[in-house]
Amino acid sequence: MAWSIADVARMSGVTSRTLRHYDEIGLLPPAWIGSNGHRYYEEADLLRLQQILLMRELDVGLREIRAVLESQVDQVAVLREHHQQLLAERDRLETLARTVGRTIAELEEGKDNNDMVKINRPENLFEGFEPSSPQIDAEVRDRWPQAWEQARPAVEAMTAEDTEQYQREVTAQMIRMAEFMAAGTPVADPAVQAEVDAQYQFVCRYWTPNAAAYKGMGQRFVDDPQFRANFDKIADGLADYQRDAMVCYADARLS
């Protein structure tokens, strides 16, 4: 039995665009292409897609995934390893759930007693959390793996203090851009472009995007619901304004 690309997209939750990208990079070619030009997938391809999605859930890059799939490693052994990693992640999430539940109970107890909330063991608030790091765009990692490899050492070397400082700087940059937007300043204005240049130099601490990558980064701010929400917390429409300013900068300075 074969399934069309639309069927696979519906079953897996992976967009047709992503499936076509996987085909283009040789990660998941279809079993065959019909006379209508549509891609069709068979059961072996669905199993391969499952492995890809499992490794993506474990934050493995597409280049590494392809290397694993193209090796002659026993498929069951690979799945068993993924299973163990997923079980470990399940245990971590269960710990997080207990942490949040304990905090809710302590907050409700203080509220019921009309007392100031007292956390018995403050360190318990953070049990199960993983050290945070700057979010390097997943699409950048997949489409520009060299940039991802360039960024990874700097990101992994960051301390908690570095991460906090990073987040403060990013927020400050977003606020400055929001002020330009509120004033009606065109994105091509030298003052706006100077701010974008400062942002670009900030990004270059971790990786050096070319024009296409920088435009892609700006577009993701608009397309990705989580990124857009972060911008909207500062000002409605800021994601689009930021994207447009980055496109202008890339065309003028990076092309």
UniProtKB/TrEMBL annotation:
Family matches, as CDD domains: HTH_TipAL-Mta (cd01106)
Keywords: Activator, DNA-binding, Transcription, Transcription regulation
Key word Cell membrane present: no
Transmembrane annotation, as ranges: none
Pfam families the record matches: MerR_1, TipAS
Coiled coil location: none
SUPFAM superfamilies: Antibiotic binding domain of TipA-like multidrug resistance regulators (SSF89082), Putative DNA-binding domain (SSF46955)
Keyword Cell wall biogenesis/degradation: no
Top-rank taxon, per record: Bacteria
This protein's name: MerR family transcriptional regulator
Native source species: Streptomyces ochraceiscleroticus
Top-level taxonomy: Bacteria, Bacillati, Actinomycetota, Actinomycetes, Kitasatosporales
